[in-house]
Amino acid sequence: MKYTFTILSVCFIASTAIAQVVNIPNANFKSILVGNTSINTNQDTEIQVSEALAFTGTIDCNSQNIADLTGIEAFVGLTELLCNNNQITSLDVSQNTALTSLVCGGNQLTSLDVSQNTALTLLSATQNQLTSLNVNQNTALTTLELNGNQLSSLDVSQNTGLTSLRCNSNQLTSLDISQNTDLTLVDCNGNQITSLNVGQNRAMVSLDCSGNQITSLDVSQCVALTQLRFQNNQLTSLNVANGNNANFVFFWSVGNPNLTCIEVDDAAYSTSNWTISTFNFDAGSSFDENCTSVGVTETAYQAIDIYPNPTKDVVRWNGIVAQTAEVFDHTGRSVLLIAQPNGLIDISELPLGIYVLKLFTEEDVYTSRTVKQ
């Protein structure tokens, strides 16, 4: 009898272990798992530990009013977790070491530990409340999306395989992407970045750093670049002469009132062709192949109201009674001199290009650039 009892006890314990279920307290999350026949293979009302261990696919629970993902830790072979647009405040993926994609945007996460998820190639944690994130262990990452958080710093120096980085609408004051030479897209708009070095990012195709505090930008080494948005910064210098200007499809630099010269491959080409809706510049900006070569000091540029600019023929101004008006080409050579211009000057006979208009009054000299198109 004693021997029989022992055998029965062992069978009971083994049976209990096999039938052990995963604790999933959130009803909405449990309903999704139970309703997935690839997970709930015996189609009962629970998820057994054995079923969770055997699963190696995707769990998609986007927009399901879920506040708690407890139970996800049992899915150690899970490769993709999609839990966007819920009310999740805490997410433990430390046991999900096979994850290659984690998409958890639109929640209420204040922290996220992905140090154990070294297989991740895609991490998207947009529109949360993250104040910091360590991705140093995630060296396989190719796509990182962190826009709409509260990050004050971001270290991507170990993520050398990154091809896409979105970190817009945070509180970043700096961004070092010098080690990320495979990047093709960077969106860091709406931060507090004061400088950006893209000299190593020759593969860059699209760059958006609008709404920062950057004063100087040189993208001449980004030879694949065709899309650039850099509005509402504090630019005084912008070099986009990357040898690929003819293939540009988008370029916005409005909101940089101190940017008077944009260095390009071919000033005449940019003046003639960058005129459609996907190209937008401040009225005071003009194009030149060498912005440092224009030898006229613009000491009173803000005092001159020049219009239209660009122009096809006549340039006008208000508020200045000039005795003479002189026009210089981009080399500093005088190409037109008019006495008593009476508030306008006709440059219709000049070739297309960028010029400097110099107005002489009895007491002062005023200058501004204008574009003939």
Secondary structure: elements and pairs:
Elements: H1 2-18, H2 27-34, H3 49-54, E1 58-60, E2 80-82, E3 101-103, E4 122-124, E5 143-145, E6 164-166, E7 185-187, E8 206-208, E9 216-218, E10 227-229, E11 237-239, E12 250-252, E13 261-263, H4 267-273, E14 279-280, E15 286-288, E16 305-307, E17 314-318, E18 324-328, E19 334-339, E20 344-346, E21 353-360, E22 365-372
Descriptive account of the structure:
This protein has 373 residues and is α/β, with parallel strands linked by helices. The protein has a domain at 301-372: Immunoglobulin-like (Sandwich). The chain is 10% helix and 22% strand. It has helices at 2-18, 27-34, 49-54, 267-273, and strands at residues 58-60, 80-82, 101-103, 122-124, 143-145, 164-166, 185-187, 206-208, 216-218, 227-229, 237-239, 250-252, 261-263, 279-280, 286-288, 305-307, 314-318, 324-328, 334-339, 344-346, 353-360, 365-372. The strands form four sheets. The protein has an eleven-stranded parallel sheet, with no helix packed on it. The N and C termini lie far apart (105 Å). The relative contact order is 0.06.
